[in-house]
């Protein structure tokens, strides 16, 4: 009786752990995507401003 209850709870725990693992993975993927996107945008703006400054100077 007690053994089956323990098995059910452990499998439920494993399922919950897997869900948390997937959530954390998704969170990190989103974070990396946003960081990459922000760096890309920052570089784009930086290059654009350099180009404008170059045109003004030249």
Key terms for this structure?
1 helix, 58 residues, 0% strand, transmembrane helix, membrane, single chain, mainly alpha, transmembrane
What do these coordinates show?
The chain is mostly helical and 58 residues long. It contains 1 helix and no strands. The chain is rod-shaped. The model has no long low-confidence stretch (mean pLDDT 85).
Q: What's the gist of this structure?
A:
The protein is mostly helical and about 60 residues long. The chain has one helix spanning about 1-55.
The whole-angstrom Rg is 25 Å
| Helix/strand structural class | mainly alpha
Strand content: under 5%
| Number of H- or I-type helical stretches | 1
Overall shape: it is rod-shaped
Helix content: over 70%
Mean pLDDT: 85
Please report the total strand number as a whole number: 0
Topology readout:
Blueprint: H1 2-57
């Amino acid at each position: 009786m007690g053994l089956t209850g323990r098995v059910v709870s452990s499998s439920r725990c494993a399922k919950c752990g897997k869900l948390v693992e997937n959530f954390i993975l998704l969170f990190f993927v989103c974070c990396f995507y946003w960081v990459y996107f922000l760096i890309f945008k920052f570089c784009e703006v930086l290059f654009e401003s350099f180009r404008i400054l170059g045109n003004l100077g030249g």
